[in-house]
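Annex B, item 7. Sequence and structure tokens for protein A, then protein B.
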Amino acid sequence: MSKLVSKKFVLPFILITSLFFMWGFARAILDVLNKHFQESLSISITQSTLIQTTTYLGYFLMALPAGLIITRHGYRRGVVMGLLLFGIGSLLFIPGAMTTSFAMFLIALFVIGCGLVMLETAANPYAAELGDRATAASRLNLAQSFNGLGCILAPVIVGGFLFSGDSGNVAVPYTVMGLIVLCVAFMFTRVDLPEITAPAEDADTNKASGTAAAIRHLWSNRTFRFGVLALFFYEVAEISINSLFINYATSDGWMTKSTASVVLSFGALGLFMVARVFGSWIMSKVAAEKVLFVCAVMTILGSLAVTLNAGHLSHAGVFVCYAFEAIMFPTIFAITISRAGRYVKIASSFLMMTPIGGAVGTFLMGYTADITSMSTAFIVPATGYIFVLLYSLYALKLKKNV
């Protein structure tokens, strides 16, 4: 820990890392809701992908305002505001369940998405900056490992509840989560998170140049533009597979839906978490760009294996994707943010727009599944991984030129 995090920042790092767990839990519940709403509301796979579309639309629309708010008011206030939106959105599931309104559920998920992007916009760059820049990717992967823990627990807890013999009320887990989140928001109003500031000369320049100049500077940077696109396509792949894992696992009789929710938690997402921890250790010894390249190649092979619909080979391909995609988000984020200079907070807000790619990917994968098969639909995440491969090659070239 001492090599990754400066001693004076250990407590802030622990507090911020707890948030990674919370939004991992919230995002993983979405993967259960798809199958639950298909059955309880009698909607198609394509219609159920509106769950991801609405949530990540909140990410897309709120990301830049989140960056501006955090730039002006600091990390702690950004975290508190994000937690409040997260908690309120969760409690909106109560009127949604009372009216059995899919539209009301979508409104609640939109509010949750707005809250989550506030948290992520603050926490990702904050965790990356709490130590030496050379270990930023490794440090962020460590923090993101707790995001993986939240992802593991959500499907098995919520899926076990919703897929029990009697159909569970979806408002119950969201009400509990909302109350916990609001309590955590209160706790963060009482803690002090030190601001990570730019050097004095950079801060003066940033203040004078303004937000418009910051945006122009970032988008004139080819590396930053490529990083944003790489994260977008990563989200196309990662979120679409998570969202429709239960559909895939049940499509050919491989698993029941209750078994699939447990396997998603402890098998797929458990593997994801372990791989992220292992990846954090590997990147303390091997350049992050090289690790990203190897992982991109393996995920492409894994997703293409699924499209073959070749029984156990295809089933194994899904788990290959989970194992090797684990380090992608924090690694791409850290590499890209390292090129943002003094505009880290605004840069983070643009990077946190990219989960909208998950909405696009889930819709395309769901539509492809409806007109062909769940196996064939894995061509969508394969396309996303191919773009990550291109980014890794670019990053390797960039590193050689430094």
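Protein B:
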Amino acid sequence: MPDAPFRDAARQRPDKWGVNSIQTIEYALIVAVVLAILMAIANKPVRKYRVVLYVIVVIIEAYFVFSKYFEYDLITDNRQITSMLTMGILSEALFAVVAYMGCLPSNHWITKRFKSVRAELSVMGCIMGFAQMIYYANSFVQFFNGELSTGRTIACIATLVLLCLMIPLMLTSFYCVRANMKQSSWKKLQKTSYIFYFMLWVHILGLYGNFNGGLTDIFSGKHGETLECYTVIWGVYFILRFCKFLYDRHKGVKSDDGIIQDDDDLVPARGD
């Protein structure tokens, strides 16, 4: 583990793309939280025009991602903005916000308000996640050719697992799909969300971990500070979620807090 002076220096030093990773993560989390608050406040129009929202996100992501392949100038050269939208940083932040919603008190009105737009936030995160995969498509070619380092190989394997999990989880966020599922089937699918969250961390571990030494050296690489940041984010989540599970079980509260939870009682799941 890096000592304090090294961590302070790493926090201020940009990575090879000229981006301060920790600062970019902080900005992405702020954007995700503010977006969640605004969408929760305006939950009715957001849910009514959700398709428009998705199309806007697709257009924005396509604009930034395909600049890599068609080499056109972007309207901004701010590296933190482009990194958030192409490297999956904002996507991970949105998933983190969605995950932490599952740690809120089950029956509080604030929780219900946030959960009313949880599906929309999740779909936005998925769209950005797919965009990241397109942006780094060349890495998958190198992976199948056996040309990647240990860390990058782990990241690619985690990404493929995430893809397999993300597709069904995203599809079940659409109310037309949700309404035609048996409730028990939907709940079983939602339980894979915890695997999804864990694999998000494994993906980050592969990207930023130092695999040149033993386990004690994992956080000692050039981007160890970034790995520490994500480890804290997801580590705290799993601890809080487990505590809430114990609390709900003690109180006899049934909780289904997966990655995409549809609390729209206008479109209920089919019974068994």
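Comment on protein B: The chain is about 70% helix and 0% strand.
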